[in-house]
Amino acid sequence: MTDGGAGEAELIAASVIPGVPDEFQRLWTPHRMAYIQAGPEPLREVCPFCAAPGMTDADALIVHRGVTSFVLLNLFPYNSGHLLVCPYRHIGTYDEATDEEVAEIGALTQRAMRVLKKVAHCDGFNIGMNQGAVAGAGVDAHLHQHIVPRWATDANFFPIIAKTKALPQLLGEVRKSVAEAWDA
Questions:
Q1: Of 55, 100, 130, 148, which cross-links 137 as Cys (Cβ 3.0–4.6 Å)?
Q2: Domain-by-domain residue ranges, the chain?
Q3: What is the three-class DSSP state of 138?
């Protein structure tokens, strides 16, 4: 029984919300379902950077296709808008790239930075390549350059203490905005 006051309102509100309230915050990351459904080692069977160009841009998260290289969103981003520039050729390290690939990787990196400044209003970037598993490359057999947008307010305790990264946009939304702005 309720007294008809605030207690009744709380019961009504609680009755329409499923689950038991607790002190935990939820970070909704539906894009990670593709990784979960692929199994524990999906990158060992197929190179994702070799497979991506054969898929639709939306399915592969590709925002631009160049002559020797392409740009796509990282499926497991450090921040929203985390892009990768990859040569089409399956090469492992930068010294294996042709002069044409090096030039296009550089040009696409610059273009990606300009587009991200426009659509994401970022304050800076982390740009780099991890070459080889020992250097931290998740896909060590296929060269790729990371372009990670950064904001003055993007770092908090989550990555350090909770080993959690809060991503405020879904990958499909980010891909669409970057792809639309690419040639604008």
A1: 130
A2: 33-182
A3: coil
Report the half-sphere exposure of 87 (CA within 13 A, side-chain side): 23
State the catalytic residue, choosing from 64, 82, 142, 144.
144
Q: Which of 118, 142, 117 shows the shortest CA–CA distance to 130?
A: 142
Residue tagged 């197929």 (tokens) = 46
* C-alpha pair distances (Å), 135 with each of 47, 62, 86, 109, 180: 18, 25, 17, 21, 34
- 33-182 CATH pick, 3.30.428.10, 3.30.559.10, 3.90.79.10, 1.10.443.10: 3.30.428.10
What is the DSSP secondary-structure string of 37-89?
A: HH-S-GGGTS-HHHHGGGS-HHHHTEEEE-SSEEEEE-SS-SSTT-EEEEESS
CA contacts within 13 A on the Cβ side of 115: 27
Residue-wise pLDDT for 67-119, tens only, equals 999 999 998 888 889 999 999 999 999 999 999 999 999 999 999 999 999 99
Q: What is the pTM of this model?
A: 0.71
Count the alpha carbons within 13 Å of 84 in the hemisphere toward its beta carbon: 24
31 carries an active-site annotation: no
